[in-house]
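Fold this complex.
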Amino acid sequence: MKRRSAIKNLSLAVAGMVSLPAWVSAWTPESIGQVNSLPIPDENLLAEITETIIPETQTPGAKSLKVHQFVLRMIQDCFGEEAQTLLEQGLLKTDQLANIAYNKPFVSCDTAQRMELLTHLQTSDDPAGKQFVDMVKNLTMRGYLNSEYVLVNINHYNIAPGFYHGCVPI
Amino acid sequence: MAFFNIDSIKDRTFDAIVVGSGISGGWSAKELTGRGLRTLVLERGRDVQHIKDYPTTFKNPWEFPHLGQIPKELRDANPIASRCYAFNEDAAHFFIKDNEHPYVQEKPFDWIRGYQVGGKSLMWARGTQRWSQYDFDGPARDGFAVEWPINYADIAPWYSYVEKFAGISGNKDGLPQLPDGEFLPPHEQSCVEKHFTQQMAKHYNNTRPVIIGRCAHLTQPQPIHTQQGRGQCQNRTLCQRGCPYGGYFSSNSSTLPWAQKTGKMTLRPDSVVHSIIFDEKKNKATGVRVIDAHTKEMTEYYAKIIFVNASTLNTNLILLNSTSNRFPNGLGNDNGLLGKYIAFHNFRTTISAEYEGFLDTITEGNRPNSSYIPRFRNVFKQETDFLRGYAAGFGSSRMLDTDRSGFGESLKANLTQKKYGNWHVSSHMMGETIPKETNYVTLDSDLKDAWGIPQLKVSVAYDDNDEKMIADFHQQMTEMLTVAGFTNIKTNDRPDKAPGLDIHEMGGVRMGKDPKTSLLNKWNQLHACQNVFVTDGACMTSNSTQNPSLTFMAITARAANHAVDKLKKKNL
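Structure:
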């Protein structure tokens, strides 16, 4: 399948990066490379799933913060082949379920239907479905909470706060 | 880089050679150059210049593609380094790659190394507690290992000397088992840590003090620090990346630039020391053999005195590899004890708990330090069925109580709502292990590294004493947390955690009174080759419960000044 080979290619690219001597002295996030390994429809599907988990409100949601890129990158670079398969099959399963339940792909479903589908996958008898949703949800929350938007605008992150107070009122 | 002429012996001759540029090597360099000696400092790794070579130091969390996590390929390729808590996306470039520097684990030992100018002084955890007379008395009193040839009084002025220069924050606590030093203002304890301190004083009649740790951070820089170009600690707690402010002590920000300013230091990175050259006619060492890390070419450098500060196990390796007709088993190794009596700190277990009070308070900002429980077991007399004791770190934080259920708008709102749960505290044990002859390093007879140097074979393990100590830590800490009102107390021993991850390995070239039972005299000179000094962790006769780096610094400064005194009197 295309998806599988795309993931494989990415792994090779990353392995190549790791062995570059530049990593030692001139490490930059750019040198690790960008992630865009899934075929566009699958990447869009993942983006819609993350957006369902953390939607756009008055503030940006997962999709506009590109949290799905983070989810992909973590699964491909850090989680190993088992997780990659889980992602692949989970995406397939999500669309299959949408087609069975609503006779249309996940991306065409409305918000209520999408939440229904994710909840169903998470609570169904199929352990792989639950694992897939849990993995994507956990990574989505992690990516969102550590995005520049949330850290700067909501948590007021400052790299050099220059203080420590051991006991202040909440 | 042809800044020296390899054809000229004169150009390869210095007053002193220092092997290694980490915490102790940096101090050797500073003291020897400061006393006017032309000093060659050899570092096996690459150059790392202060600020310029800290590539991640200003990066924000979201600028790391994996938010700090190490990609799987890199983790799988480096299983040893990966077990170190600081081997993350922001600092992995300061750790060696496992496959480039192989060693033999006769027993599991996670040898954590940073081969670069500054060594591990860039990534250390910066705890700087003095040792006390009880630590120096330990071996003689308990009968393990051999007696130390020095007392606390010998080292105390040198503690003061290095503390003032390095910048150590702490509180004067007046404890006999943890002497006070020359302190900058201490960090603050949180209300829960203060509560624990007070409860311990009350329930144990002041016999179990809990204090704020002493650490190498400039909480209030003094003129001596600004002269080094260092500034106030910014509480970023990103220390393992290298600090652009010089807020914590490292060779890179402090001792090496200071030595450089004298004009007497020649720093040579990428220089792997093969062995020390012993001249039988002169009956002393005359220099070192260095292999260029890249070209693999060997060059000899000469000096009147040699300081070996390669880090504990590499110092052992170099001496074991320095063979001659006079010393067929390694330099100074007449008694066959070189490489033996290696010890470490037992960091295998932790304990955690919760506190249901102070719910209307929280901490703000970051603190590059924690509270500290000095050793309270067997301090003044032997009172348990195990030898020695343990210290412990003690930290606290307020946990976020986040509702992570569901999907969509409600989840999104819940995630950023600051709802706090109970206070969470945790403590890690730092146990003293007993130096034993059966804990040793030696050279593998067949395997060599990429530079043709024999691989080090490490055979170091826990023993029954360590197991008893772990059980006692669990029992005593559970009792202490219980009487202080903590709940949900959980112990977490990790029997699979090999020695080494503590990064406090010591010994193998121990100091002592008698050349029959030790390698070094009270001035850190090899008994049998007095112009060679060993002042890193390898020299330690026993290893206390306190963090060792401050003691390495003090012992180094003391020995270096002694060496210069002797040299000036033409006694070396």
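Chain B touches chain A through 53 residues (CB under 8 Å).
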